[in-house]
Amino acid sequence: MTTNKMTSIWRVRPGSNDPASRAAIAEAAQLLREGGTVAFPTETVYGLGADARRTEAVEQVFAAKGRPSDNPLIVHIADESQLAELVLPYGETEQALMKRFWPGPLTIVLPVRPDAVSPRVTAGLDTVAIRMPQHAVALRLISESGCPVAAPSANRSGRPSPTLAEHVREDLDGLIDGLIDGGPTGVGLESTVVITEGPGVVRILRPGGVTPAMLREVAETVLLDESLAGVGEDGNTTTMNNAKHAVKAGGTTESTNNGQSSKAVNDTANQLQAKAPRSPGMKYAHYAPQGEMVLVSGVASAVREYIRREAESAAERGEVTGVLTYDEHQDEYAADAVISCGRLDQLETAAQGLYAALREFDARGVQRIWAEACPDDGIGLALMNRLAKAAGGRIVVV
Ligand code: TXA
Ligand code: MG
Fold it and tell me: In what order do the strands lie in the sheet with 368-372?
């Protein structure tokens, strides 16, 4: 990786209106107008922004991230008045979603107005994903720049998304023009991406901070994209339960005391990958720590028992072991790194802490990680989706 840029870093207190913060945002907005790349905080994760209309600027985003070019970017706006020049007329359901959830962690896929943004942003699709973030710094940066701002998460491709400016620095220092440090982000997971399929019908392409139950306040029918199989909501016929798609430990597997069967586990990974996702980004290995991670789901006591046993035998083989758990269970393991992402009885905190926890395993050189599953309702749906991705589809049901 070559580093050839001087990355300007500004510290800005969100919500503050002091002269230093105002000057920092003005400088960053100027960089965007000039075709530069600037990382900035949002309420979900840090984004890496560029003027969505300028191909050279957008190409710098792909280059800095090492992102595959067929993965389109979300365009961020600060005001609905920006929409007219970006998208073609849309329906009442989209309007209702915007009214209810913007600004906020909901991205809506809309018909793109021809030539409104660089083809690099849409990856050649006839749609564009639009979002209005709920973060004072992001909103001010976007409106001062006067640009529609294309911004993927500000991490190297495949790495966990950044929830702190420090994470952005780790991945992108010297590769981007600027970074606004606005402290920790809020939700901690990327926005929910949706597309409508007729009046009152919304399909979730990527689960996030806006949950299916919240979407149902606005849309009669909320569907989960098939590519999300393996992490579903109970009781929704279009979704599937983990158990149906995951590997049953001790079933077809050869042994459980020598690590779970790699064959069965790989079959699951292949199954998950075989489904062509409508949101192109969902097909890539994402959010992954460097160590090999397995997501363990099932009866709580059996999950803990399984993880303890597996971690113990891996430790005997001389591997550096890690357990990703919750505050309530942190004392129950004896691995080299036992890291809680947050509270099981308050999964919002686990969502906030997930990516920092994954990065911490890397910092400690962990080679094998077992992650405890969580209930997949509410924000748990998004959390389980990211956990399954971080595990590369390696899911064990005990
Ligand atoms: O919370 C977020 O959404 C963050 C912050 C920075 O706003 N951004 C983010 O961007 O997560 P990124 O690039 O990491 O993820 C964009 C997702 C990908 O899964 C991509 O495939 C999908 O949105 N996407 C973008 N344009 C699309 C389109 N036209 N149709 C379907 N999916 C699209
Ligand atoms: Mg991303």
Answer: 247-248, 395-397, 292-297, 368-372, 321-325, 337-340
- Two tokens, residue 28: 């960053």
Q: Indicate whether 161 pLDDT > 80.
A: yes
Query: Over the stretch 49-84, which tens digit does the pLDDT of each residue have?
Result: 999 999 999 999 999 999 988 889 999 999 999 999
Give the atom of ligand 1 at the shortest distance from the alpha carbon of 193: 23
Q: Tokens in use for 367? A: 């080679």
pLDDT range class, residue 227, cuts 50, 70, 90: confident
Contact assessment for residue 227 and residue 277, using Cβ atoms and an 8 Å cutoff: yes
Q: Select from 353, 214, 370 the least CA-distant residue to 304.
A: 370
Which pair of tokens denotes residue 227? 């590519």
Query: How far is the C-alpha of 86 from the C-alpha of 89, rounded, in Å?
Result: 10
From 153, 164, 282, 283, give the residue whose CB has the most ligand 1 atoms within 8 Å, as the site to mutate: 153
- Write the CB contacts of 206 (distance below 8 Å, at least 6 apart in sequence): 107, 190, 191, 192, 193, 279, 281, 282, 385
Question: Which is higher by pLDDT, 74 or 158?
Answer: 74
- In this model, does residue 234 exceed pLDDT 90? no
- 334 vs 37: CA distance, rounded Å: 43
Measured CA to CA, the distance from residue 45 to residue 332 in angstroms comes to 30
**pLDDT tens-digit readout, 264-323:** 333 333 333 334 446 666 555 667 889 999 999 999 999 999 999 999 999 999 999 999
Torsion on CA atoms 224, 226, 229, 232, rounded to nearest 10:
10
Largest CA distance in the chain: 64
Rounded Cα–Cα distance for residues 73 and 165 (Å): 20
Ligand 1 atom at minimum distance from 125 CA: 29
Question: 3-class DSSP state for residue 213?
Answer: helix
